Amino acid sequence: MKIDLIISAGDIKKEKVLHKSAVVIDMLRATSVITTAMNNGCKRVIPVLTIDEALETAKNIKEEVILGGERKGLKIDGFDFSNSPLEYSRDVIGGKTLIMTTTNGTKAIRGSIGASSILIGSVLNARAVAEKLLKLKDDVVIVNAGTYGQFSIDDFICSGYIINCLKEMTAVELSDVASTANYVYENNSDIKSFAKFAKHYKRIMELNLQEDFEYCCKKDTIKIVPEFVDGEIIIR
Q: Enzyme group, top EC level (predicted)?
């Protein structure tokens, strides 16, 4: 299995994802939200790029809809919830459709179209993602959402953990950047401690989101792997 890594949503190129299994990671916090919401019974998540697209999509859906997301880490005016996974409890999201737009994560998901499979990854479901990739038997590209188009330490260490899980399961051929991510994880397996070096961590602390940070750094608490299929994220 060949494994490559893209360092931010702004660096996605079609040929890098084409016909591969892509794993999109925005651990602080979009993919952690999606994984949590789906684990708590969310019917589907529709990731969109803009606020206007989210509002328009909501108008055209007859079933009960939740609007969620952020801009610069803050809840969007008129939306139901922000980008905190702790808000998406079973009683809130169970059986409903979540329409979501975020600064980095939803851009990375939509930018990965062309991959044979698009999986939603986080620290929360990292080992489950690795197990799913093993079953798919494709080459892999891990897509880091990054932060405002730039490399992000938090997504990178999460990628390293998923790569490390795959190394335990099968023979892998790593690109230089994937090998670096694995090396970083092997020498910093306490994800929470290492992620505190991230610029994104400082922003999370500025917004008093310590609980979100603690939650998003918990390894393998969720066993499902959401997938982006035909414009929506589902479990299949």
A: hydrolase
Nearest to 70 by CA among 207, 218, 210: 207
* 61-99 pLDDT per residue, tens: 989 999 999 999 999 999 999 999 999 999 999 999 999
What integer pLDDT is reported at residue 19 of this predicted model?
Answer: 95
2-226: CATH architecture: Alpha-Beta Complex (3.90)
Phi, psi for 123 (deg, rounded to 5):
-65, -35
Task: Please state whether the predicted TM-score (pTM) of the whole model is above 0.70.
Answer: yes
Measuring CA to CA, how many Å separate 141 from each of 145, 174, 232? 13, 10, 20
159 in Cβ contact with 144 (< 8 Å): yes
Distance separating alpha carbons of residues 101 and 76, to the nearest angstrom: 9
CA distances from 191 to 50, 87, 96, 215 (A): 31, 23, 32, 12
Domain segments of the chain as ranges: 2-226
Span 147-204, pLDDT tens digits: 988 999 999 999 999 999 999 999 999 999 999 999 999 999 999 999 999 988 999 9
Q: Which residues pair with 67 in a beta bridge?
A: 99
Q: What is the distance between the alpha carbons of residues 223 and 221, in angstroms, rounded to a whole number?
A: 7
E strands in the chain: 2-6, 21-25, 44-47, 65-71, 74-75, 97-101, 117-121, 140-144, 173-174, 227-229, 232-234
Q: Are 200 and 191 in contact (CB under 8 A)?
A: no
